[in-house]
Amino acid sequence: MHDLSKYPFEIRTLSPEDGGGFLISYPDFNVCVSDGATIEEALANGREALAETIAALEETGHPVPEPGSGQTASGQFRQRLPKSLHARLVSQAKKEGVSMNMLVATYIAEGLGKRGRAR
């Protein structure tokens, strides 16, 4: 029996366009995700999805990953900004017709590219 509480998970807020609520995923498993209207509901639904995923792997003879074996960079980070800088980014993203996340990711990629060429 696997201790489900040892498997790391990530929870993120779903936008209203995506139905709202919260999405939970387990980095150790490629396709184990669930959601819920509240964090508590997402956790409960996620635990159930995890148990079902593990059971399906065992039934089909596939290996069950160890807790923490899928830990990789999540591709997410939070950054607090001065309100004035945030406003400039929002304005620029609107001008370019992209999300602020896409704009900032592009700026970071451009900066890393310039830095890499300077070395």
From TrEMBL:
SUPFAM superfamilies: Ribbon-helix-helix, TTHA1013/TTHA0281-like. The lineage of its organism: Bacteria, Pseudomonadati, Thermodesulfobacteriota, Desulfovibrionia, Desulfovibrionales. One of its GO terms (biological process) is regulation of DNA-templated transcription. InterPro entries: HicB-like, Ribbon_hlx_hlx, TTHA1013/TTHA0281-like, Uncharacterised_HicB. It comes from Fundidesulfovibrio magnetotacticus. Residues 15-69 form the HicB-like antitoxin of toxin-antitoxin system domain. This is HicB-like antitoxin of toxin-antitoxin system domain-containing protein.
